[in-house]
Each structure stands twice: as structure tokens, then as C-alpha cells.
Amino acid sequence: MKTLKDLNIENKKVLLRCDFNVPLKDGEITDDTRIVSSLKTIKYIMDKNAKLIIFSHLGRVKEEADLEANNLLPVAKRLEELLGKEVIFSETTRGLEEKIDNMNYGDILLVQNTRYEDLDGKKESGNDPELGAYWASLGDVFVNDAFGTLHRAHASNVGIASHMEGKSCFGFLVEEELTALQVLDNPERPFMVVLGGAKVADKIGLIDNLAKKADKIIIGGGMSYTFLKAMDKNIGKSLLDEESIDFCKEVLSKYNDKIVLPIDAAVTNEYTEDEEYRVKDIDDLTDDEMGLDIGPKTVELFNNTLSEAKTVIWNGPLGVYEFEKYRKGTEEVLLGLVDNNIKTILGGGDVVAAASACNLKDKVYHACTGGGATLEYLEGKVLPGIDCIK
Length: 390
Ligand code: AMP
Known about the structure:
This protein is of the alpha/beta class. 34% of the residues lie in helices and 16% in strands.
């Protein structure tokens, strides 16, 4: 992996792709985590006396009306506050040459939302060759620190990098994420996978790729009910992904020895937090009941199994963690991993949110940030944003 420390950026014009896709409400940033987490890379480049030119997307731009709502100016202001230094802002994505010529070394320029280019024939998202070549022509080297877009071939990542052979690298954020994910290429064994969340259909690629590598596959959450249905159990009104039953049957027969499923559940009659729940063995569910969390016997079973693991990848919560009372299963299994000091990677999306809600996110080995990018990496796909820099 080629990282910032492998590239000479001293006194260079550095093009940096960040992920500043922050949530905004009425033009105000409501969560600046993404900007804050980019500071390490930005400060490192600033310290090298470079001219720093930053690109990022923000939201989606499909029509004129989307322009104002997705203007990157608030990000420039916030970045300026965080750095205690002026950030020059370009209202446009073109005509940047003069602005860059006028910069002093050590200055920072933030370019308008790269997706403004999508208004004219999806030039950014479609990786328009002319656009990538134009942006690449503005700098000497390219640093990609936008993990969440590595699975996309856009002009501002793959487009620029394709003109910067030998002059591109990853920033510290991407380096950190990839270093953690690469643990899974050759994991210390026993290697176990924990799967939860809602739909099996969303995770078919992931299951296909990880099941063959794993020593154990622990399945909870909404998705476990489609597996249980595939075993002809009565799952009542629990979440069912009917179209994936055959896939589940296949997985069950292929990996029978590896799979661990819930043996009890917290059940209720309605999908609401207001009703009391009962704990029932998985064979005892009635037609009008639904399982919204794993039960205590399952927690014990999962924790005993996982206590043998050396490496764990976990995707998807084991219950409806948005309701506090159905967060318990996820929390107790997470706690077991943390207490046993097991190298655990939370693979994106909702399990990271669940771990945050339990105040355990910072206690695991790594919590991935990029939803789609992480999922595609775990599916074993080649990510265009990685491939063009490797
Ligand atoms: P995913 O995005 O596939 O990881 O799914 C996350 C969603 O799965 C969350 O919104 C959870 O509420 C949901 N979920 C987890 N367990 C269950 C369950 N037993 N029944 C219904 N939904 C569930």
C-alpha cells in the first residue's frame, strides 16, 4: 500500500481527495466528524510546505435546485476554524489555474463540490476522461483520503489517479481502514464472522466470500429468521426475506458445521418499543410473535463460541438496536469480545452505529466508516479507488 510517507510532497502542488460529505441542516454542519478525521492528513501535507488543493463531493446533484443545498462553502468555513488558518474557497470546479498560481506554498484551496459537475452529463460520477485529466493537470501529486468512495470510479478519485501514475498515494484515513481490513486477507485463526442486520439479500456477496474463509459463522438479527425458516421452523411474524430462502438452504447445507444460529429470542407481538417482551426458545414461537433480539441462551452460546476466536469480522446488529431494550444482545456479545480482547473489526454501517450507542465503538480493534466501500471490500471485490493507486 502506497501511503503519504512514501511520496515526496515537499514544495509540491498536492491534490487531496477528502470525504467531506457531512450532514447539513439549513446550511449548518450538524456533525463535523468527517472534517475532523481528515485533519491529520491535511496537517501533515501543510507541514511539508505544499500548495494543498482539496476536492470533495457533498450529497447528490441532479438538478439546479440541488446546487445551493450542496454548496461546500460551510465546509471551508469549518475547516478554517479547525485549522486556525485561512482556507481559500473556489465557488467553481473549473478555472482553477489562476487561483492555484496565486497561492503561496503552505496555502489551502478547497474546490467546490465535485458533484456540481454531475449537472452537466454526470461528469464526476461518470468519470468523464476530460474532467479527470483537467483536475490532474492542476497538481504534481495526488493523495486519496476518501475511504467511503473507494468503491466508485469517479473523476475526482480514479480519474485523477489515472493521470498520476507513480505520483499517487493514500492518506492516513484510508491507510488506517485498509490496514484493518487487510487483517482479513490472512486472519489469525480461528477466524469467525458475525452476521446480523435485516435482509439476507443485501449480504449474499458478503456471505459467499466470508463463509468459505471463516471457521465459524454466527448469525443473528433479522437475517437469522430467513435461515431458521429455511430449516422449516415457525418464525411467526419475524422478519423474513422470502426470496433468499433457497440461498439460505444452500448456505446451510454447504457450511452446516460452521453455522451457529440463535436458540432463543426476545419476542413481542408488535414492532414497537412500548410493549413488554418475552424470552422464548426458538422452537416455541407462535404465529403472532416476532423476534426482535437474541435471547440470553443465545448470548451465552455466541459468547462461548467467540471466546475461541482470534479474529472476528462483524456485519449487522443482532437485534433492533434502535430500540434500547432490543440492543442488549448486540451489546453483550460486543462486551464479550472486548473483555476477551479479541481482534474485532466492525464492518461498516449499522453495527458501528449500534456499538456507538453502547459506548463500545472505541473499544474494538477497528470500526470501519465506509458503508458501501467496506461491504464491497468484504465481498472480495476489487475496488476501483484502490486498484488505480496500487
Ligand atoms: P443492516 O443494514 O442489514 O445491517 O440492517 C440493520 C437493521 O437490521 C437495523 O435497522 C435493525 O433494526 C435491523 N434488525 C436487526 N435485527 C432485527 C430483527 N430481529 N428484526 C427486525 N429487524 C432487525
